[in-house]
Amino acid sequence: MPVESGSSAAARQAKQKRKSHSLSIRRTNSTEQERSGLQREMLEGQSSDNLESYLRMEDSKLPLSLRSNLLDLFGQIEREFENLYIENMELRREIETLNDRLAAEGQTIDGGDLAKGALKTKASHSTSQLSQKLKTTYKASTSKIVSSFKATTSRAVCQLVREYVGHRDGIWDLSVTRSQPVVLGTASADHTAMLWSIETGKCLLKYMGHQGSVNSIKFHPTEQMALTASGDQTAHIWRYMVQLPTPQPVADISQAPCEDDVDFSDKDEADCDAEGPNDCPSVRTAATTLRSHQGVVIAADWLVGGKQVVTASWDRAANLYDVETSELVHSLTGHDQELTHCCTHPTQRLVVTSSRDTTFRLWDFRDPSIHSVNVFQGHTDTVTSAVFTVGDNVVSGSDDRTVKVWDLKNMRSPIATIRTDSAVNRISVSVNQRIIALPHDNRQVRLFDMSGVRLARLPRSNRQGHRRMVCCSAWCEDNNSCNLFSCGFDRQAIGWNINIAALLQEK
After folding, report:
1. I want to staple 493 with a disulfide (CB 3.0 to 4.6 A). Which of 214, 267, 283, 487 is the partner?
2. Rounded CA gap, 486 and 193, in Å?
3. What backbone torsions phi and psi does residue 69 show, to the nearest 5 degrees?
């Protein structure tokens, strides 16, 4: 076999290197528009290229299997470089977009940095810079509004007067007596209901007759009797006698610095972990027990006159009872899912029930011979409560984050809709001023008028306000110090003083 001279062999190797180098340059410097076509041609011509390369290496001393492995490895390396090139082109487009958005700030990113291996880091850093600038701009533009709102609403309009602490679990419901003496009642998941002195915050009486969570409490219109609904599938009517203590001076804690939207950890619950009032007298026996339900009794209320009561249950029914005989008068069925609340009209024999089936129903008992029912489908999620006003209105709240005001004379569509940022729990409407108090899952309590105009938000900070979900609100317009109460799952009830005149003036 003829032997090739050293000079001719070196010349052939240099020529092969130049050809391979020119082939690689042609492949990697193709434009993006041509990339897809070239990629297809490379795949189709891969076998011929491999054959050509194999022929060039015909005189190599390497075994055939090793040469084949080398060809495969070089092909993989080439595909990796092609993927990196495509990724670099995409990153270039992203950096150009960021440069356009940052042009107004006088900041750009040099495209030459794309070849330095820090492309993703720079893009991420630029995005975070833009996000931070947007946040700073937003805070600066709203700081005056927020500070003005704190100064007027949290101090001049809405002031925290007193906290009522003593329950061992969350408080689901609260109510204020309609007759003298005026006291506050709370219903808790700790299986008890408590009566409180509004002026001093002292527990006056504890009811311990239920075997389950106490979900609702309402007072008789004229007598010293309370109606409670429980998870033990019963509703109890029990009598109480209390003597109000001498009022004590109230420390003005409302002037503390207000720092809104502060997150609380579980250690904040220590303030509410008191053992409860040990010297508080207790009642353990109900005067009347109502037992017809087959599920949790979630709410109960007195009909006008106080001779009948209505209860709402998770068994999808509401029951109407005679108080004197404790007999079941009517079973109000029709809801497709569990009931969440019931309320009676203050002057007429009307009942409204709300349910998880997204509806609320109006029951009319004004005609003793018959009772009619109307179904209203104004919400898209659980209707958490629906309450009457002194006038001809019904106000409904829902987990769909809306509150709607309805006219009893025309219930086909709401006359006002209030949209919020959180689920709405048991609402209440003031008798005289017709102001709606909205307790929320996000610990807020907001005030609106009947036309849907927002009036105020109660203070919420690390020094005052609720630390957990606010479950219920209740108005009291017969007390000089507190005219609004709220309770929540932070185990406390709070008494607020709302300056109605200032509130309506700001409106």
Report:
1. 487
2. 15
3. -65, -40
Query: pLDDT per residue over 426-443, tens digit each?
Result: 999 998 888 999 999 999
Q: What angle do CA 34, 36, 38 make, to 5 degrees?
A: 65
Q: What is the dihedral of CA 203, 274, 189, 464, to 10 degrees?
A: 90
**pLDDT grade, residue 23 (50/70/90)?**
very low
Residue pair 293/315 in contact by the 8 Å Cβ criterion? yes
Judge contact between 483 and 499, C-beta under 8 A.
no
- CA-closest candidate to residue 193, choices 283, 287, 297: 283
What's phi and psi for 2, nearest 5 deg? Answer: -65, 145
Instruction: Determine the Cα–Cα distance for residues 449 and 431; give it in Å rounded to an integer.
Output: 12
Q: What does the alpha-carbon distance between residue 324 and residue 371 come to, in Å, rounded to a whole number?
A: 21
Under 8 Å between Cβ of 316 and 338: yes
Q: How far, in Å, CA of 481 to CA of 196, rounded?
A: 14
- The dihedral region occupied by 360, where left means phi > 0, alpha psi between -120 and 50, and beta the remainder, is beta
DSSP assignment letter at 231: T
Cβ–Cβ under 8 Å, residues 340 and 355:
yes
> Over the stretch 109-167, which tens digit does the pLDDT of each residue have?
444 444 444 444 444 555 555 556 555 555 444 444 444 444 444 456 889 999 999 99
**In the prediction, which pLDDT does 105 show?**
64
Residue with the bigger pLDDT between 46 and 80: it is 80
The residue among 352, 370, 369 whose CA lies nearest residue 361 is 352
What are the tokens at 127?
């995005």
